[in-house]
Amino acid sequence: MLTEVLDTFIPVLMAVVLHEVAHGYAALKLGDDTAYRCGRLSLNPIQHIDMFGTVILPLILWQLHSPFLFGWAKPVPVNFGRLRNIRRDTVIVASAGVVVNAILAILAVLIFKIMPNTFCANLIMINLALIFLNILPFPPLDGSKMLFGWINRGWARRYMAAEREGMIAVLILIVGLPVVAKVLGFSEFDPLGQYMETMFNLVLGE
């Protein structure tokens, strides 16, 4: 039991912590040291744990035997106005977390081919799940800034600023709709789950 828990939740911590550190490090290199000054470039997971996103949500998905497991850490603070080239650098900073998740997934695949193990299998799936989730164009997910961060228009700024509304929408997609649909007898109605399954099949060739 303990081994199963460690093999599940250590990959979650690795994926979400390095995702956030990547955002902060990219911002630092591009002109904004906010994350650095706040101590958020640390690899100490305690600095990054979000009680719901890092602990409660993965536990819920694990207990529900979800086909994919993911979570998130506390977002690193980034002052996009301090970036040297705000249009270009906003996209780079937003993309940094996804790039790191892709690198982790590739490394885990290489290790898994040499030495198959549950830890690496979970690390692959969790990092892929984070990539697929974060490329969605809903604030505060990274995809909203990748798609609209370079647009100097009022509507684009207002859209990216709607983080609370976007997070509510994401939580409804992750937890709300599947639970309500199951209660009502529509167990197949899970748009996010179907999207994630499609993406996994495309990438893993299943």
Q: In brief, what are we looking at here?
A:
The protein is built from 9 helices and no strands.
Defining key terms:
mainly alpha; globular; 206 residues; single chain
Describe this protein's structure:
It is a single chain. By secondary structure, the chain is mainly alpha-helical. It has one domain. The protein is 68% helix and 0% strand. The chain is built from 9 helices and no strands. It is globular.
Helices and strands, with pairings:
Elements: H1 2-29, H2 34-37, H3 51-63, H4 86-114, H5 118-134, H6 142-148, H7 154-161, H8 163-183, H9 191-204
Helix pairs in contact: 1-4, 1-5, 4-5, 4-6
Q: Element order, helices and strands?
A: HHHHHHHHH
Structural class: mainly alpha
**Over all CA atoms, what is the radius of gyration?**
17 Å
Overall pLDDT: 85
Give the number of helices: 9
Biggest beta sheet summary? none
How many β-strands, per DSSP? 0
The domain tally reads 1
What percent strand? under 5%
Distance between the termini: 29 Å
What shape does the CA trace take?
A: globular
Helix content: 55-70%
Low-confidence stretches: none
